[in-house]
Specification:
- It is a single chain.
- The chain has about 160 residues and is mainly α.
- It has a domain at about 50-150: Serine Threonine Protein Phosphatase 5, Tetratricopeptide repeat.
- About 65% of the residues lie in helices and about 0% in strands.
- Helix 3 (about 70-80) runs antiparallel to helix 4 (about 85-100), helix 4 (about 85-100) packs antiparallel against helix 5 and helix 5 (about 105-120) packs across helix 7.
- The longest helix is centred in the N-terminal third of the chain and has 19 residues, at about 5-20.
């Protein structure tokens, strides 16, 4: 039969073994894995016409916000942008004309209406736009000048 001292000794050995196992150094962490190559998402092609149309809308918003010179700066390259359809180029010219008109610059206002009519002789202002006290008159003068040129153009001689 085990004696008290042998039980005490066994308990002490077990206690020391237990404590030593708790103090063990954990195994080293595995080496870091090399980074997994990220496959980039394919770049979506952007339609240049869509970009230019958005730029046109942004430029018109500058006009609406009363930032007329900023609108002119933004609209000028759009008035000849080959990515835009003729109707959008004419719209840019119209808002450049409006921007000059609202600042009292009648000559450039008229010049831009002349340019718009040169691009599209069928271009018209809306009824509300025609009634504007400044640009309505300038547009009417530009339209009259265009019509006058049509009637005074030399006739071709048929051979």
């Amino acid at each position: 039969m085990p004696t008290f001292h042998s039980i005490e000794r066994l308990s002490l050995v077990l206690l020391i073994a237990f404590e030593l196992s708790a103090c063990q150094i954990p195994p080293p962490a595995p080496p870091p894995q090399p980074p997994v190559a990220q496959i980039p998402e394919p770049v979506k092609s952007v339609d240049p016409a869509v970009v230019k149309e958005q730029q046109l809308q942004d430029a018109i918003q500058l006009y609406v916000d009363g930032k007329y010179d900023d609108a002119i700066t933004a609209l000028t390259p759009l008035s000849t942008a080959p990515e835009l359809p003729m109707s959008s180029q004419v719209k840019a010219l119209k808002y450049i004309a409006f921007s000059h008109c609202v600042q009292g610059r009648r000559k450039p206002c008229r010049e831009y209406f002349d340019k718009a009519l040169a691009v599209d002789p069928t271009f018209q202002l809306t009824e509300a736009e025609k009634g504007h006290p400044v640009w309505g008159k300038e547009f009417a003068n530009a339209r009259a000048a265009l019509n006058s040129k049509k009637h005074t153009a030399p006739k071709r001689k048929d051979s």
